[in-house]
Amino acid sequence: MTPFEIDRIPFSKESVTAWAALNRRHTDWPVVYVLDGTSTVTGASTSSDVYVGESRNAAARMRQHLESADKQHLGTLRVVLDERFNKSVCLDLESFLIRMLAGDGAYRVLNRNDGITEGDYFDRDLYRGTFRDVFDHLKDDGVFTRTIPEIENSDLFKLSPFKALTTDQGVAVESILEGYFEDRKAGVGSTIVVQGEPGTGKTVIGIYLLKLISDIATSQQPEDLDSDSMFADFFAAGYPELLAGLHIGLVVPQQSLRNSIKKVFKKTPGLSPDMVMTAFDVGASDIKFDLLIVDEAHRLNQRANQPSGVQNKKFIDITTKLFGVDDKTKTQLDWIRERSHHQILLLDAAQSVRPADVPPELLNALVATAKLENRHYPLISQMRVKAGTDYVSYIRQMLGTPAPSSVPTAYSAEAFGDYDLRMFDSITEMRDEIRERDAESGLSRLIAGYAWPWKTKTDKTMYDIEIDGTSFRWNSTQSDWIASPKSIDEVGSIHTVQGYDLNYAGVIIGPDLRFDPLEGLVIDRASYFDAKGKENNKTSGKSYSDTDLLRFIRNIYAVLLTRGILGTYVYVSDPALREHLRPFFP
User: Fold this and answer.
1) Which of 198, 155, 104, 171 is nearest to 391 (CA)?
2) Beta bridge partners of 568
3) CA pair distance 544, 269, nearest whole angstrom
4) How far apart are the first and last CA of the chain?
5) pTM of structure
6) Same domain for 409 and 341
7) Residue limits of the Schlafen group 3-like DNA/RNA helicase domain (predicted)?
8) Distance in angstroms (rounded) separating the CA atoms of residues 93 and 520
9) pLDDT tens digits, residue range 447-503?
10) Which one of 120, 151, 182 terminates a domain?
């Protein structure tokens, strides 16, 4: 017998009043409730909206909602009651249901993004077991359409603005808001830098901030300001007025990630797919933005040969329009700073993977200036890889230059606990293991460095990658490849996975990266087939040596090796490199 019960009644004044008289806990007990657009009479959906809340006096809270214009269209109230509930439990369950509903995608979540709580409390694990039972009951009642694993593997969940932040993420968001509002009050522009390694949640911070600031800008005096909310103070009088007429946007350089975020924004009140832009969109815009948040800012372009003649002309036209002359030293970062009063740049210079990316010295200068101006916010906590914070450093040292002669003494693969880190001598065995992990957990894919030509781009009957008699094809789509139907049978490139999570990543280190006993890690330029990844910059008179190219290829493999949440499998093409790396794997 479940210790909780879920009351389901029509969301109307009469029904709420009658319900309130049935039990004292309806007016004096911590509860969690869900309001949605389902009709309790017909069972039909009258609205695609949902709202989740918690209250000590559910009946009084419902009367407030019934007087609110933005809730009156909702049809059904479900109240979760449990004699064991307290305030901490209710805040946690409220957070859980909001995140699950946003990830499920069947409803638009009407909640503000004022700080989802995920603090620790007594017997939390015990209550968390109950949360899954509550979810199952709500799913049986039509509130959810997918299972928890299906939701947690979806982009809607992973890229949702409704997140419970880590301590350093919460501190960063609060500090960023304080600095941003200080600069707006003073009428001065600002450049804020958020810096973090793979998996520290830079994209989460960007999306979270955009939703939070948009909610503050559009908020009225709240009907029930919850002082327990992490960012409630920013919804108080004075802050929304500072954001009057706000023009805000999110710049995402990578096409696939940009398209995925647009899908999330389409289902999120207060956000719009139009807010998600390329640097070209910003440069060509006639709007002077109040704030631009730039995700993966290290992937912005400097002046270089673009993928098409049209984009080459756009680069010239935008630079000329913004600066009065075609200044070849100007980058897309310069466009963004010219077209906005404030910028929040989310970056990691070690994830730059092409010569056209803004140069590391420019990024380093940005970081140094932000530190001097107290506008630099580092992220430390590892949100993706379950191996812990040291894993990224371990991978980067493993691929370091000069190549380490032994496993770094500060780290050990055994220190990563249950994280499934393995090297394979057979590509077929690694493929089979990835398929097994995908059947068990989903989101398990093969990914590789760009060490084989893309034959199937023009001939779908061909294969691209041949290793020891086993054949593979590159990703058949560049947009949302990970979730595409064919992806389990294909191999993804850096351009389809940067910025995304996998449960298990099967990484193929191709013949573009080799090991020389005297020189350490070296590259085989002829085995690297990303034309834009090794192209000299004739426009700016820059040429890229093998040393330069080694930096990009090392960065690519470091990104690929930090995608897996639960495990990373590795196959190394070059025998000498395989033996050199073997001690790094259990």
Assistant:
1) 198
2) 421, 505
3) 46
4) 45
5) 0.91
6) no
7) 191-574
8) 52
9) 999 999 999 999 999 999 999 999 999 999 988 899 999 999 999 999 999 999 999
10) 151
